[in-house]
Design brief:
alpha+beta, 2 domains, Aminopeptidase, globular, 370 residues
Length: 370
Amino acid sequence: MFDTPVHSSASLASSDIFSTCLHRIDPLQDKRWNEFLGRHPGSSVFHTAAWLEALQRTYRYQPIVYTTSSPDVDLQNGLVFCRVESWLTGRRLVSLPFSDHCEPLWEHVDPAVFSALLEEQLRTEKWRYIEIRPLHLLETTTTLQQTSHDYCFHQLDLSPDLDTLFHNFHKDSTQRKIRRAEREHLTYQDGHSQALFEIFYRLFVLTRHRHQIPPQPARWFRNLIDCFGESLKIRVAFKGHEPVASILTLRHKDTLVYKYGCSDSQFNNLGGTHLLFWKAIQEAKEQGLRTLDMGRSDRNNTGLITFKDRWGANRSALTYLRYTANRGPSSPKYSEVGSDWKLRCAKQVFAHTPTSLLPAIGNLLYKHMG
């Protein structure tokens, strides 16, 4: 565990406005981190040691937390990152890789300290960029070049009773699909056994092939299962003995998080995915949970956005911020020049790649994509 000052007030800036000393800790070794998350109302599943450990085990990303709290007191704030060091895509500091959002738990800290931290890290570590993924709009004042990328984010309030929740679902799609699944006598299983994992991953690979994207490596999901234990569930819908759809959910405090979903497209008309969400909502209500986090969606993925809208979920903007030391002309978005055509070309290649080869490709690529 490292718990040493990053910089004194004198080294944070040339002026005397900084009176705070920043410390750097290892959230996987410092037990204060989990205690802090338990107290903080803004903590999410993506802040947890379980998520960070799965990232480290799978991709060798080193987690780091910056805080103004000295080693001998309880943590009062924290900004968590992972160091992503790739020969293919560059060195960068990300909060956090493969995470839908990661709110800076940074209340009551002078915004200038945050800006100085970014500037100092970019200067001394020579990161290609620093990226944060706040759940709420974050305003900073910095001399760094700041660019952004927008997503949609959906959350479903679980405080109404089940009848009201069901009534709020879209009648001609969501309600109808749930009833169709019941008429088709789809059955349901959940847990995190090896058998359920194998079903989930087979469907996941099929789904990623349809989307022309390699799947994340199987070891990522095995590490999630190992790190989260009972807080992770794989949910599978069956038609007879045939698995038709699966979703993976995580639980943190009073929130259920939908993270991954997949299906066999030949059975999509049976409503298997809708049944799984409804079962997850019913279980969450039984356990007294208050929110279903339905995750982020690309703004151009209108089908996924519509699907989430029709559950009665609240839609909001999710804005990722990227900081670089580049003083060149800035752009309001951080999609790099040429990235669109490169992505289209890659999808064309993956579309013609045998399904059996896609996991191996994902195993090679994802550690560079965080």
